[in-house]
Amino acid sequence: MTFLKKYIRPGVLRNLLRKAAKLIGGQCSLAISFDGQVLIVEGPASAEGFGEGEPGVVSVPIRFDEEHSGRLFLRADGSEEGTGLADLLDLVAYSIQELVDMERARRSIAEEALAKYRELALLHRSVPNINTSLHMRDVVNALIDECRLENYPGELGMIFLLEPSRKIFRLAVQFGFPFGTYLQPMVDSALFQEVVSSGRGEIVNDLDKESRWDNELPGLGSMLLIPVNSPNRCEGALILASRNTGVFEAAHRRSLTTLASVAGISVSNAFNFEGIQKLMNAILQALAEAIDSRDPYTAGHSERVAHLAVAFAHALNEAGGCRGETFNDDELREIYYAGILHDVGKIGIKEDVLTKRTRLSERRMDVVRARFQLLGQFDGFDWGRAYDCLCDVNKAMVPDAADLDFVRELGTKVMRRDGTDLRYLYDDELENLLLTYGNLTKDERREIQRHPAESERILQHIPMQDGYGNLLTIIRQHHERLDGSGYPDGLEAEDILPQSRLMAIVDIYDAVTQERHYKPAYTRSEAMKILRREVDEGKLDADLTDFFLANIESIEMLSDQVKVTRTTHLSSLGNMSSL
After folding, report:
1. Widest distance between CA atoms in the chain
2. Cα angle value 549/553/554 (rounded, 5°)
3. Phi, psi of 465 (to 5 degrees)
4. Which residue spans within 90-247 are E strands per DSSP?
5. Are residues 286 and 508 in contact, defined by beta-carbon separation less than 8 angstroms?
6. Of 142, 146, 96, which Cα lies nearest the Cα of 122?
């Protein structure tokens, strides 16, 4: 009786048989069977009296569906058989068949409506989940999560994606397989190749009987393969599998095809986005190298600062963030770009200032030498000793006070001959030689200090993607100091972004640990002393600097890994599987 309820309500059927029996005076009995078993009887006869070939029993078939059938019986007891009874039997059978067909149609419509509702519900839920990110890793993980959320059969799963440049499908993510299982042979199977080439999903519920399967992955019993299609091509394949046979149904294929269609657009967008990211990275890298190449001593500085800055920011994330605030993936990438581009404004700095190695150029020193030789001939001037002292001062980062006093004395000396005054040193020479630190004059230092603002001016015309709103600010502020002594704006602590403070620390660290034309490379311990002195003077963020110095070895190791993996997925630095 339970099976019969699927096709017609037993109460309705019983009523119909009862009324038909009443029409023929209650002397006849009617019964209906389902798959050979008599289930309902109306009239004086019992169920045992309705069998094929029984005297006085006539029957007609009832079709419930392609698999199940039954018969309507009429037993004439104590009355003569006639055409009227046959007509009545046909009428009742016709009525029952119509009711069964109507119920099947109703159920079919209901099931189709339910399937559509489930499909729409799946779309409604999955579209925002799968389309949340433009990063491939996030898209495929969201697709796998949706498969698990829907509780599809199959304890194993794989997603393969096409490498457009090589036309090869590679495993993107999997679940259920033991760690280290090599799944690439799946791509070589004829079954996989046919699914991705045809663009149609397939269910194979017994892989041992499948001619296109040569046991590429041993131990599997059944498999559901769905191509992940975009408007332009097959982007990959979603595969659910089980070690058991007969676990997948057509409904699973339909709903997974819906999921895969959503994912196909997202995968295509992610491929395009990551292609643009690679192109952008390459362009920015080329730009940074062009800047660094103007001075061989600073070559690689921008790239090293970018790697150190990202590693520093990620280490902060691992430790709970900067004052409780962590950097998200876009912010990590923004820090990377700021590091790569922080010195791009040096394009606009005069070449002789940018690459100035000594206080006076070699050509100007030759002029001074010739002048001293001339003065030595007429004035009894020990030009050789004087010139050697000037050479020492000219190359020194911090000249001796006695040497500077000697230069000042030379600057006051004048040789008068034939009404002509010939100075030993001129004002512009004295301005350079009497610097107490470095080799740049005030005007030259101001020229150098233009580069952060010049960087912002150059880059403001480049349309950056959403999420990089602080990029130009970080670049402009990377030489600002908390006490207001920095440049170009002389900002104080409350106006300087955490990212800019972080960038300032790694910029100083890389600059002092690399050889420059005006100084040797300092050791790590010497660089750490310089950073601590800057903190003591109130120039650098104390908390960030202390964290950087306490974790300098791990940050440098992490920066080497950033160099290898670049910026594809900066938030995944933790496991370094892909960046």
Report:
1. 164
2. 105
3. -70, 160
4. 156-163, 168-175, 202-204, 222-229, 234-242
5. no
6. 146
> How far apart are the C-alpha atoms of 354 and 498, rounded to whole Å?
28
The whole-angstrom separation of Cα 260 and Cα 215 is 25
DSSP state letters, 529-565: HHHHHHHHTT-S-HHHHHHHHHTHHHHHHHHHHHHHH
CA distances from 79 to 29, 48, 87, 145 (A): 11, 20, 16, 70
Residue type, 393: V
Q: Specify the residue for token string 């010139």.
A: 387
Specify the CATH number for 4-108; select among 3.90.226.10, 3.30.450.40, 1.25.40.390, 3.40.50.300.
3.30.450.40
Q: Which fold has domain 131-275?
A: Beta-Lactamase (3.30.450)
Judge contact between 359 and 444, C-beta under 8 A: no
Q: Are 73 and 58 in contact (CB under 8 A)?
A: yes
Taking only the tens of pLDDT, the chain with its 579 residues reads 566 777 888 888 888 888 888 887 777 888 888 888 888 888 888 777 776 667 778 888 988 888 888 888 888 765 555 557 788 888 888 988 888 888 888 887 877 766 666 666 655 565 666 666 667 788 888 888 777 777 788 899 999 999 877 788 999 999 899 988 999 999 999 999 999 999 999 999 999 999 999 999 999 999 999 999 888 888 999 999 999 999 998 888 888 888 888 888 888 888 887 787 788 778 877 877 777 676 666 678 888 999 999 999 999 999 888 777 889 888 998 999 999 889 888 888 888 888 788 899 999 999 999 999 988 887 778 899 999 999 999 988 889 999 999 999 999 998 887 778 889 999 999 999 999 888 889 999 999 899 999 989 988 887 776 678 899 999 999 999 999 999 999 999 999 999 999 999 999 999 899 876 666 788 999 999 999 999 999 999 999 999 999 999 999 999 888 766 654 444 444 433 333
The domain limits of the chain are 4-108, 131-275, 293-350+452-574, 362-439
CB 349 within 8 A of CB 447: yes
Residue with the two structure tokens 């912002």: 456
Angstrom distances, CA of residue 401 to CA of 358, 360, 434, 435: 18, 18, 10, 11
Domain 4-108 matches domain 131-275 at the CATH topology level: yes
Q: What are the structure tokens assigned to 89, written together?
A: 């039997």
Cα–Cα distance for residue pair 425/446, rounded to 1 Å? 24
Q: Which residues contact 154 (CB under 8 A, 6 or more apart)?
A: 222, 223, 224, 240, 241, 242, 247, 248
Q: Tabulate helix, strand, coil % of the chain (nearest 5).
A: 55, 15, 30
The answer to whether residues 433 and 393 touch, using CB atoms and an 8 Å cutoff, is: yes
Fold of the domain built from segment(s) 293-350+452-574: Hypothetical protein af1432 (1.10.3210)
- Reported pTM: 0.62
Find tokens 């020229």 and name the residue. Answer: 447
CB 229 within 8 A of CB 198: no
CB count within 10 Å of CB 37 equals 11
Q: Which DSSP helix (H) or strand (E) runs through 75?
A: strand 69-76
